[in-house]
């Protein structure tokens, strides 16, 4: 799998895809969606779709694709090669959500949570298939959340397509298994060959599974914690594992939308300036204070009595 | 307030070339004074796309813009040479480096001319005019 | 965000980020002595403010700080927590001398400057006696007598008013060349810039410039200057509420200073001054429909008084 497009800038989200088989533009198709790397504190989360004509479902089954989680990394690689060989009737596309995208979205001023992020990635991929002319009739989705609501959301978004959202869909429907293999292979590669944008010299790549409970992952997180910057962009800052470590080992950083400081920020919005505690007009003696001209207040400029 | 601590002398180096600093103004309060691996963690991750600089700090997305100082003005970083041992002594600072522009970073929104710090750049020019002696 | 530590107070600094006029730190002659930050009596507030003398005290600069909450600096490979940006800009030293001249004027006698410029709270003020720009321009604010080799001075209110008026007019022309919004087009923190008014009057400029110059003179002088400029008197002391109260009442972030008072124009329209100045005539003709929205900036109390 060629991840160069993603590696060119692994701080953002990136789409990778196979060519669309001609037959998918003329025949009714089914499409499976699955994700890889939702839980880990490290690396990207990858959303994958795989599609083929409904009439070729049996051929796909014969490739012996199965839920990627039950397979070894080598088996997944192998199956991905098989899927690649079946490109006459199987197509795939991936949305790689970089860990930086995940962090900055989840920690955004207006929070963009992981579910919304996942749903949008899935919807984007289905739309992509439609835009490529794939004759979509059936969509199968694996989910971790409540299936009904998600199914309703997708059905509404894609009228004319029969949407089936099911927990464990990756072991029930070969097209979902195929999608999960594509996603997992991309995630494996991205993590294994992560190109650190930071200038960290040689980075120890023994970060384990990336799951917070993996001791290897834990010790890696401790080893690479920087007291000011926290972590390289490879780490999802929005994960509580990362947050907890930063809270105890890094220097505190405060933003104007922090909850604890939020009251002050709100006060500032109302212009009951927080700056009043810095204010130039500390009553010195009994001089009565005059209001500063708006040229200065608008520019947050003030006289100071000490450097 | 100790009266004598009100004098701070700026020691000017005798003609030696002063180092030029790379300077960023961050949209957060970092409870730290001292060393930081800016060149390792921050600078390499700054992306420039279509006049817009982006980066992230502690997992939060920032958007930045270069700010150039008003003409005739230079950015200076002053550092205390040593803490005075008593209130009676003058404080002494030196020009530890200079900078001719800096990058102003906003949390998530691109900086505009309405940002206070951008607006404050209008001050020196106005100050010059207000200082100018009047004609008889 | 998860649990956040409370913000610790920021203590003292040992480094500062400054934008300074090149002339301030330019050491042309070796015997000039180093530039010096010094605390002097702020002529407007009577409280302490930071100034800078350079070139052997010949030149005076003022220090203003850009202070906005939630900022820190990266300077090369360091963090400076204090996110202030200090501006060192040239200042007319006469402003600092005025209060001393004025207080000396009580006896109405001519005095040598050394006897006038004394301040036990701010011993550094005697440095102003070396400030050539101040000495060369003293005649703008004081009468002078030369007896033998000694010069004697006496504060002149008349001269001072003329000098301040010229200062205001200089400032007006500076404002006209700038893109500083002097009219009702107050910027709000929601970043909605009121369209640059095409109907900014001469009086708007005068008021704004008067407000700026008032940042450098006592409240009494500011009022005298207001009269001297023949700016319509429209605000009664009753309307001047303590800033904190005013801020709480208004939901819009206008730091009006005294400028907002022009929108109380209904007040002076009701009892017009006997003679209208050109500026007032212009103002009377101004289409006030656009100013309606400004009423939202007033506190309810002020609104009642307008009615």
Automatic annotation (TrEMBL), chain A:
EC number(s) per UniProt? 3.1.26.4
Keywords, alphabetical:
Endonuclease, Hydrolase, Metal-binding, Nuclease
Instruction: Name the GO cellular-component terms.
Output: ribonuclease H2 complex
The biological process GO terms on file are: DNA replication, removal of RNA primer; mismatch repair
Q: Which PROSITE patterns match?
A: RNASE_H_2
Q: How many and how are cofactors bound here? A: Manganese or magnesium. Binds 1 divalent metal ion per monomer in the absence of substrate. May bind a second metal ion after substrate binding.
**Cofactor(s) annotated in UniProt:** Mn(2+); Mg(2+)
Catalysed reaction per UniProt? Endonucleolytic cleavage to 5'-phosphomonoester
GO MF, one term, reads:
RNA binding
Where is each RNase H type-2 domain found? 28-251
**Superkingdom, taxonomy of origin:** Eukaryota
Give the binding site residues for a divalent metal cation: 34-35, 142
- Tell me the CDD domains matching this sequence: RNase_HII_eukaryota_like
Q: Note the InterPro entries from the entry.
A: RNase_H2_suA, RNase_HII/HIII, RNase_HII/HIII_dom, RNase_HII_hlx-loop-hlx_cap_dom, RNaseH-like_sf, RNaseH_sf
Q: Is Ubl conjugation given among the entry's keywords?
A: no
Q: Which family does it belong to?
A: Belongs to the RNase HII family. Eukaryotic subfamily.
Query: Any idea what job this protein has?
Result: Endonuclease that specifically degrades the RNA of RNA-DNA hybrids. Catalytic subunit of RNase HII, an endonuclease that specifically degrades the RNA of RNA:DNA hybrids. Participates in DNA replication, possibly by mediating the removal of lagging-strand Okazaki fragment RNA primers during DNA replication. Mediates the excision of single ribonucleotides from DNA:RNA duplexes.
Q: What NCBIfam families does this protein's entry cite? A: ribonuclease HII
Q: Please describe the quaternary structure of this protein.
A: The RNase H2 complex is a heterotrimer composed of the catalytic subunit RNASEH2A and the non-catalytic subunits RNASEH2B and RNASEH2C.
Q: What's the protein called, per UniProt?
A: Ribonuclease
Could you read off the lineage of the organism from its UniProt record?
Eukaryota, Metazoa, Chordata, Craniata, Vertebrata
The gene name reads: rnaseh2a
TrEMBL record, chain B:
Q: Name one GO cellular component term.
A: ribonuclease H2 complex
Could you tell me the Gene Ontology terms of the biological process aspect for this record? RNA catabolic process
Q: What is this protein called?
A: Ribonuclease H2 subunit C
Native species: Ictalurus punctatus (Channel catfish)
Lineage of source species: Eukaryota, Metazoa, Chordata, Craniata, Vertebrata
TrEMBL record, chain C:
Q: Which residues form the Rnh202 triple barrel domain?
A: 29-92
Q: What does this protein do?
A: Non catalytic subunit of RNase H2, an endonuclease that specifically degrades the RNA of RNA:DNA hybrids. Participates in DNA replication, possibly by mediating the removal of lagging-strand Okazaki fragment RNA primers during DNA replication. Mediates the excision of single ribonucleotides from DNA:RNA duplexes.
**Subunit field text:** The RNase H2 complex is a heterotrimer composed of the catalytic subunit RNASEH2A and the non-catalytic subunits RNASEH2B and RNASEH2C.
The protein in question is named Ribonuclease H2 subunit B
UniProt KW keywords: Nucleus
GO terms, biological process: RNA catabolic process
Q: Name the InterPro entries for this protein.
A: RNase_H2_suB (IPR040456), RNase_H2_suB_wHTH (IPR019024), Rnh202_N (IPR041195)
Q: Name one GO cellular component term.
A: ribonuclease H2 complex
Q: Which Pfam families does UniProt cross-reference here? A: RNase_H2-Ydr279, Ydr279_N
Q: Where in the cell is it found?
A: Nucleus
Instruction: Locate the region Disordered.
Output: 230-257
Return the similarity comment: Belongs to the RNase H2 subunit B family.
Bias (Basic and acidic residues): 236-257
- The lineage's top-level taxon is Eukaryota
Please state every residue range assigned to the domain named Ribonuclease H2 subunit B wHTH: 95-225
**Chief location:** nucleus
Q: Which species expresses this protein natively?
A: Ictalurus punctatus (Channel catfish)
Which CDD domains did the record assign?
RNase_H2-B (cd09270)
Point out the signal peptide segment: none
